[in-house]
Design a protein that fits this description.
The structure holds 2 protein chains of 2 kinds.
Chain A lengths: L1 E6 L4 H13 L3 E5 L7 E6 L3 E6 L4 E3 L3 E6 L8 H6 L4 H19 L3 E3 L2 H4 L5 H10 L7 E4 L2 H11 L2 E4 L9 E2 L16 E5 L4 E8 L2 E8 L16 E5 L3 H13 L4 E8 L5 E7 L5 H7 L3 H11 L5 H8 L1
Parallel strand pairs in A: 1-2, 1-6, 6-7
Antiparallel strand pairs in A: 3-4, 4-5, 8-11, 9-10, 9-11, 12-13, 12-15, 13-14, 15-16
Helix pairs in contact in A: 1-9
Chain B lengths: L1 E5 L4 H9 L5 E4 L10 E3 L7 E4 L2 E4 L5 E5 L16 H18 L4 E2 L14 H10 L3 E2 L2 E5 L15 E6 L2 E3 L4 H14 L3 E6 L7 E6 L7 H13 L1
The chains are: A alpha+beta, B alpha/beta.
Chain lengths: ~325, ~230
């Protein structure tokens, strides 16, 4: 029984879980990406999977790993690799390490938070929104278009409309305003996503296995992650969801094959619950610091309690 | 109308579309996404439109899509300002993923969040999956270290291919291999898959799998059209 963490020590969500695992006394190794030049991997895949990771600090048998928490950056973007350039040996090495580990986490029977194939649903927000709706949540009316006439009509229909990126490229959610009229013709160059604006109370819900942590967010900004000034700075407090919504969050995370998920909800004045997005690699520490919810402990416990899954279950996951 | 979604550099796709006279087959490339008229209302197909051959059409007129584009590459977005190309390529890929998933017509293959062409596994994952469905595989060994030079991938001297399209397969191989290829496609959740073996006999080894059927084979293109007409 061993837990493997992969990423950078400066990554707060990852390092906080590392500290929790050490506190629990559970065997844990931290694969520090900064050690990329010294990482050695052997991986054999046939009818079975076997392999080892070796660094100056540890050597592990991959079949001993029962839990994985990964938040790696692309190793080719590490300073030592960037400086060496794309034709360098270390650049090839970094790419090979990433490729081997990313393929292994898709196949291993260990619990993985989260498998990259599952995390990818966030690469297309409207695609993910279709899954969210299938899980029973209300979602805002959404239009992705290259047609400015369609935008005008959609805007008129809903009165207030926001726009945001379609892909996982992080963008600030902004509301359309009269100053956008002239620029709307530019949507012809690239499909652009518009959504009905839903007024209400924001919630960030972290699902960790069966545990659910809800955080109510008070902010006057359109996107609380980007407050306009200090008066917009979000106020966070721990909250409890109605049982039905809590269960729907668990179901949504399960549908998306995400044992760890950060779900963005908004409750309207009419008591309706809308879901906007599911973050598959949530930066939960921002919320934990404000609410003191034991999210990192729950993640550590999930990683340690999980027994290797049966092959049938694995097959359903990699499929 | 059957759509072939492909790169503007995909000569095989262009050859098929330009030479096919028996039916309405049209090429759609990423460049077409920079044209006014696309309307993708989530969950509302009757209001959604596409721009095909510079004409705005209802997406309900589309009877099938063959996808030959894993994602939109910035290299083909020549009409976009160079600094914006990576962002636009990511946005177009995300758009297509949602647009394809929302269509009600048959698609070869349905997109996944990782790849517009379907389940995009690495070679190791295909080998492991092949072994799970009973194929004979050779273990894939990797040793990655800066201390040793990486081994060059060995290209097999001989290989034979089986193309799975729906519930049939095309390829001059022992029926055991053909049926195994169908099982692998089912396991991967795809309707179109090309499976490569080291030889045509029943005891052959699985080599690899991909989503690139030979569109210059009339047997394969006919089977693709039959798949869409039968669905």
């Amino acid at each position: 029984m061993l837990t493997l963490l992969w990423g950078l020590p400066g990554d707060s969500p990852l390092y906080t879980v590392y500290q929790e695992l050490n506190y629990l006394g559970f065997p844990t190794v931290f694969l520090d990406q900064r050690e990329i030049a010294h990482i050695e991997i052997s991986l054999s895949v046939g009818s079975t999977i076997a392999g080892e990771i070796c660094t100056p600090n540890f050597k592990i048998d991959l079949n001993q790993v029962t839990g994985v928490y990964l938040r790696p950056y692309e190793s080719r973007r590490l300073p030592i690799v960037v400086e060496a350039g794309s034709n360098s040996r270390i650049w090839q090495h970094a790419a090979a390490v990433d490729d081997a580990l990313l393929s292994w986490v898709e196949m291993t029977s260990a619990l993985v938070l989260n498998r990259p194939s599952a995390m990818a649903s966030n690469n297309s927000k409207p695609y993910q929104l279709q899954k969210i709706r299938q899980a029973g949540f209300l979602v805002p009316d959404t239009l992705v278009t290259t047609d400015s006439d369609a935008v005008h009509k959609f805007w008129k229909q809903h009165g207030s409309v926001i726009y945001k990126s379609i892909s996982s490229t992080r963008s600030k959610v902004s509301r359309l305003s009269p100053e956008h009229h002239k620029r709307l013709a530019n949507v012809a160059w690239c499909p652009t996503q518009f959504q009905q604006y839903i007024p209400g109370q924001d919630y960030r819900v972290h699902v960790v296995g069966e545990a659910v942590f809800a955080c109510a967010i008070a902010s006057t900004a359109d996107d609380y992650r980007y407050p306009g000034d200090t008066t917009d700075y979000p106020q966070l407090k721990s909250d409890i969801l109605p049982l039905e919504i809590e269960q729907r969050c668990r179901q949504l995370a399960s549908t998306l094959k995400l044992p760890l998920a950060g779900i963005d909800l908004r409750k309207t004045d009419d008591g309706e619950w809308y879901c906007f997005e599911v973050n598959p690699s949530p930066g939960y520490t921002f919320y934990q610091q404000e609410t003191h919810q034991p999210i990192s402990l729950a993640i550590a416990q999930l990683l340690t309690q999980q027994q290797p899954q049966t092959l049938g279950k694995v097959n359903s996951i990699i499929g | 109308m059957l759509i072939v979604l492909a790169s503007c550099y995909d000569e095989a796709a262009r050859f098929w579309v330009e030479n096919w006279t028996d039916g309405d087959v049209t090429l759609l490339t990423p460049e077409d996404l920079s044209k006014s008229g696309w309307r993708h209302y989530l969950g509302s197909l009757q209001d959604s439109t596409a721009v095909i051959r510079d004409q705005v059409i209802s997406v309900e007129q589309i009877t099938g899509v063959l996808t030959r584009l894993p994602c939109v590459f910035e290299q083909e977005l020549l009409s976009i300002v160079e600094t914006d190309r990576p962002y636009v390529a990511a946005e177009m890929t995300a758009f297509l993923g949602s647009w394809l998933a929302d269509l009600s017509c048959p698609i070869l293959n349905k997109p996944t969040p990782i790849c517009l062409m379907g389940t995009n596994w690495r070679p190791q994952q295909w080998i492991y999956a092949a072994s799970q469905v009973g194929m004979s595989v050779e273990t894939h060994h990797q040793y990655i270290s800066l201390k040793t030079e990486p081994k060059q991938a060995q290209i097999p001297s001989e290989r034979v291919s089986v193309t799975v399209i729906g519930d049939r397969y095309i390829g001059k191989v022992d029926p055991i291999l053909g049926n195994q290829a169908k099982k692998l496609a089912e396991f991967a959740g795809v309707e179109l898959l090309v499976v490569h073996y080291n030889r045509p006999e029943a005891d052959a080894h699985f080599l690899s799998a991909d989503f690139w059927p030979d569109l210059k084979s009339s047997e394969i293109t006919t089977a693709i059209l039959e798949y869409f007409s039968e669905m």
